[in-house]
């Protein structure tokens, strides 16, 4: 199985479309505020409330993308390629993988299959590492193929680690 995690080039695309989505939300918000100021739209009507909910969700997703780093799996390690640092994490140290839907973060507009999901990898020491994976809009759970591939790679790495420890213990006897 292939863990379809996003490389740096796709991260750049996500950042680009995130900025475009911000511009669109700002224009819509400005039009709604102007409508409320002119009295065309009531301040408690549905439109300002929906825009507020969308803005809050967009802000949450903006923060999640900011924490994410490009990643890939190589030789039983999760390799994180951040702007300031590169990090290798042994897959045997991963305790869980969790995914979340994204509403606004996409790699390309006008495509139902070009959305991304947020992946949260929790390590044995409690540290959480974040990355993005390919996902479809209505895929449940989000990025299910990537999550299954990572869980399979983690299980395989843990089994190899156990086998190495058992072989080392039997050699010491």
Sum up the overall morphology in one term: elongated
What is the CA-atom radius of gyration, in angstroms?
21 Å
**Major sheet size, sense and barrel closure:** 3 strands, antiparallel
Quaternary state, please? Answer: single chain
Uncertain segments are none
Number of domains: 1
Mean pLDDT: 87
The assigned structural class equals alpha+beta
* Strand/helix succession: HHEEEEEEH
Which helices and strands occur, and which strands form pairs?
Elements: H1 8-38, H2 46-67, E1 71-74, E2 77-81, E3 86-90, E4 94-106, E5 115-123, E6 128-135, H3 144-172
Antiparallel strand pairs: 1-2, 2-3, 4-5, 5-6
Structure, explained:
- By secondary structure, this protein is of the alpha+beta class.
- The protein has one domain.
- Helix content is 47%, strand content 25%.
- A 3-stranded antiparallel β-sheet has the order 1-2-3, with helices on one face. A 3-stranded antiparallel β-sheet has the order 4-5-6, with helices on both faces.
- Strand 1 (71-74) and strand 2 form a beta hairpin.
- Helix 1 runs antiparallel to helix 2.
- The radius of gyration is 21 Å and the shape is elongated.
- The two termini are 38 Å apart.
- The model has no long low-confidence stretch (mean pLDDT 87).
């Amino acid at each position: 199985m292939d863990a379809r995690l996003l490389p740096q080039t796709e991260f750049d695309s996500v950042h680009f479309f995130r900025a475009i989505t911000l511009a669109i939300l700002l224009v819509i918000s400005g039009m709604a505020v102007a409508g409320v100021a002119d009295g065309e739209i009531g301040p408690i009507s549905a439109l300002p409330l929906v825009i507020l909910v969308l803005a809050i969700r967009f802000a949450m997703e903006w923060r999640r993308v900011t924490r994410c780093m490009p990643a890939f799996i190589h030789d039983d390690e999760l390799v994180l390629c951040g702007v300031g640092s590169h990090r290798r994490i042994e897959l045997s140290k991963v305790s869980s993988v969790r995914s979340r839907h994204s509403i606004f973060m996409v790699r390309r507009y006008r495509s139902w299959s070009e959305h991304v999901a947020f992946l949260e990898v929790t390590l044995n020491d409690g540290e959480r590492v974040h990355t993005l994976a390919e996902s479809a809009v209505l895929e449940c759970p989000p990025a299910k193929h990537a999550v299954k591939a990572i869980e399979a790679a983690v299980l395989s790495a843990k089994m190899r680690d156990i086998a190495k420890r058992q072989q080392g213990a039997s050699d010491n006897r």
